[in-house]
Amino acid sequence: MAEHADRKLVLLRHAKSAWNDVPDHERPLAQRGRRDAPAMGRWLRAANHVPDQVLCSSARRARETWQLSKAGLGSEPPVHFDNRVYQASAAQLLELLSEATWPAKALLIVGHDPGIPELAVMLAETARAAGGDAQRPEQLVAAGVPRQRPARHDDDRQVPDRDIQLPEHRLSFR
After folding, report:
1. Taking the CB of the first residue and of the last residue of the chain, which one, N or C, has fewer CB atoms within 10 A?
2. Does residue 75 lie in a domain region?
């Protein structure tokens, strides 16, 4: 376990998507999402959360978020597009992490609601229960991370427009 203590998991929900008449998996980013995604990359760089490996959902809006975000990172980490991230629950994302060998020191997952925010809350609750310094889940909610599935899948209206900074968590992934 000690060899994994310096690893970082960074969770990123895709940027604002459009509700076009296309299958859910093929929905593109909305204009606001295309504008905001590069800012996500710049924020990751400024906050010292630049990944050295990326696991990204195969959904178009997640791929577009990654493509636009990486410009602000100042690096080109290898990316793996995986269909299993699409519509994955928090438990499924953890399972995906535990079954693979990730050589990354900092792994970024680009995914979807509700899996990404549920995983953030799960990690915060686990850290708190273990006596860690994580914020309380209620504070995560106050910061704009929903704790329940939105009324409509991927409903961006459930998350306020503001910067969301989650506590850092160390995760033992192989």
Report:
1. N
2. yes
